[in-house]
Amino acid sequence: MVERSLRLKRVREMFEGIPAESIAYLNHPVVYDARRTVDLLAPHGLVPPRFPDYAEAVVGFYREHEGDPALRPKPPA
């Protein structure tokens, strides 16, 4: 319902122009388990970064490329 309503320009404007495609990202089911990664990196003195350590880079990438159609998710069938 939210994704469909964000297709309306007036609704998007109420949410400061958020694209309808962003809902597809929020609703994508994901489970992260970094235990194996941590185990493999530890002997080399490496540690995966915490989200706060790279969140700014992710947001920056999004802002730089938000108009790139090649990076937009396909609409649900």
Offer a concise description of the structure.
The protein has 77 residues and is mainly alpha-helical. The chain has five helices and no strands.
Q: What is the first-to-last residue Cα distance?
A: 14 Å
As a percent range, the share of strand residues is under 5%
How large, in whole angstroms, is the Cα Rg? 17 Å
The proportion of residues forming helix, as a percent range, comes to 40-55%
Poorly predicted runs are none
State the secondary-structure class.
mainly alpha
**Overall mean pLDDT:** 84
- Order of helices and strands, N to C? HHHHH
- Strand tally, please? 0
**Principal-axis shape:** elongated
Q: Can you characterise this structure?
A:
- It contains 5 helices and no strands.
- The protein has helices at residues 2-5, 9-14, 21-26, 35-41, 51-65.
- The two termini are 14 Å apart.
What attributes does this structure have?
mainly alpha, 0% strand
Write the layout of secondary structure elements.
Layout: H1 2-5, H2 9-14, H3 21-26, H4 35-41, H5 51-65
